[in-house]
From TrEMBL:
TM region positions: 12-36, 56-78
Keywords: Membrane, Transmembrane, Transmembrane helix
Originating organism: Haladaptatus pallidirubidus
Name of the protein this chain belongs to: DUF4126 domain-containing protein
Domain of life assignment: Archaea
Amino acid sequence: METAHETIELDALAHSGAAAVVSAVVMFLPGVFGAVSVYEGVVEMMEQWHLFFEPTVVGTVAGMIEAAIISFVFIYAFA
């Protein structure tokens, strides 16, 4: 039986993995929109701020990997 004074422990690995997946999906969307010439401003900003992102298939996959790794490391470090 749980008491009111128990502490909840967060699973850092699970949270980091979830953040990596969310970041990769969010990076995928500008890649798709850039390929069909929608939201050009977002695509330009992503190209400026991300090292590997381009609105091509390879650039989108590289941006997704970049976003997943960065998110995983930061969330794991602070969780």
